[in-house]
Amino acid sequence: MPSLAVVATTGRTGQLVVERGLAAGYDVTAIARLPGNLALDHRRRTADALNPESLRGALAGPEAVVSALGSTGLGPTTVCSAGTAAIVSALPSGARLMVLSSAALATPPDAGPGARLLGGILRWVAAASVRRHGADGEAVGFQRARVDSGAAERVD
């Protein structure tokens, strides 16, 4: 059975990835700062996604790691970039990393007209993609992808 570790599992994206992974038969390990906040009954490990030392032990063993890091605030943040850097530095040899994001495309209030136009176009494209895949989270893609021997493979 393919093994999968999911980082940041207490948010909506992380919970969905864990649920879909378990339903698809993956051996899933949920990694969170507060794993007691998870509703599902499965393997959990405690780690801070911004701390590589904290992640090293938690990430030991899986063939693939999914990062579902996100921010809850509206202001500037480095949680995704800093967290991804920490995960990459703690990633076990041979493991694959997939970074997911459900973050909205926001345009800064002081953006010029070109940036506002581009932001609007990107939001429209993202919304069209979500509508095409369905609002139930099917875009996570466990029906279309599998992990075999540490390599992600599309299986349309």
Characterize the structure shown:
The radius of gyration is 17 Å and the shape is globular. α2 crosses α3. It is α/β, with parallel strands linked by helices and 156 residues long. A five-stranded parallel β-sheet has the order 3-2-1-4-5, with helices on both faces. It contains four helices and seven strands; from the N terminus they run βαββαβαβαββ. It has helices spanning 12-23, 52-58, 79-90, 113-133; strands at 3-7, 27-32, 44-46, 64-67, 96-99, 145-148, 151-154. β6 and β7 (151-154) form a beta hairpin.
SSE diagram, text form:
Layout: E1 3-7, H1 12-23, E2 27-32, E3 44-46, H2 52-58, E4 64-67, H3 79-90, E5 96-99, H4 113-133, E6 145-148, E7 151-154
Parallel strand pairs: 1-2, 1-4, 2-3, 4-5
Antiparallel strand pairs: 6-7
Helix pairs in contact: 2-3
Largest pleated sheet = 5 strands, parallel
Tell me roughly what share of residues is in helical segments: 25-40%
The helix/strand series, from N terminus to C terminus, equals EHEEHEHEHEE
Strand order of the largest sheet: 3-2-1-4-5
Structural class, from secondary structure content?
A: alpha/beta
Mean pLDDT: 78
Euclidean distance between termini CA atoms:
20 Å
Unreliable residue runs: 135-156
Tally of alpha and pi helices: 4
What form results from the Cα inertia axes?
A: globular
